[in-house]
Amino acid sequence: MTKYTLTYFDVEALGEPIRMLLSYGNLDFTDNRIDFEKDWAKFKAAMPMGQVPILEADGKIMYQSLAISRYLARLVGLYGENPLEDYEVDNAVDNINDFRAKLAGAQYEQNAVAKEEKFKLLKAETIPYFLEKLDAIAAENDGHFALKKFTWADVYFTGMSNYLSVMAQEDITANYPNLKKVIENTVATPGIKEWVEKRPKPKV
């Protein structure tokens, strides 16, 4: 049986969808959490692109969080049944990731004045726009993001949801019941439910 090792920081963020997919598939994995302050400098040089997460499996090192997630989603059966359905799932994930990129652009802005301006735009336009669109998609799909069934798009959103809320500086599901339903459906799913109950609390 393949043994997996996921290496990421002691946060949810980009690593949590991967942890959830591994747990959903009942795939044995080591959750290797590195301390950014103490250990990242020595780890970074050894990473394929100088970044994490990475997933090791039988000597193969995989990197890029979305590529890892797609690999696992296919492995555990959380894609569609044909190329068109796969497109629907990937489209949903790309919508969520576009939202993440908009938030990150403000969250990690180093110039204080520019950061303030970016957050003003986020609060006034970007956040409401994306959340309304995403909530409507979830409503159309009965509490899912694609195909009216559980796919890795739901896992990706759920795993990223706390990170998205931190970057948005608000609970992104507070006024969006269909997004809440996606999360509720996901965390009640066997495998993921057990992971959520036992996962360590991140330091950050």
From TrEMBL:
Q: Does the keyword Transferase apply?
A: yes
Give the residues annotated as coiled coil.
none
UniProt keyword terms in alphabetical order: Transferase
Per the record, a Pfam family? Answer: GST_N
- Domain GST C-terminal intervals: 82-204
**Residue span of the signal peptide, if any?**
none
Q: Tell me which Gene Ontology terms the entry assigns under biological process.
A: glutathione metabolic process
Q: Which reaction does it catalyse?
A: RX + glutathione = an S-substituted glutathione + a halide anion + H(+)
> What's the domain of life for this entry?
Eukaryota
User: Transport as a keyword?
Assistant: no
Q: What is its EC number?
A: 2.5.1.18
Gene Ontology molecular functions:
glutathione peroxidase activity; glutathione transferase activity
The main enzyme category here is: transferase
Q: Where is the GST N-terminal domain?
A: 2-80
Give the family this protein belongs to, as stated in its UniProt record: Belongs to the GST superfamily. Sigma family.
Indicate the quaternary assembly. Homodimer.
Question: How is this protein named in the record?
Answer: glutathione transferase
Organism, by scientific name, is Chironomus tentans (Midge)
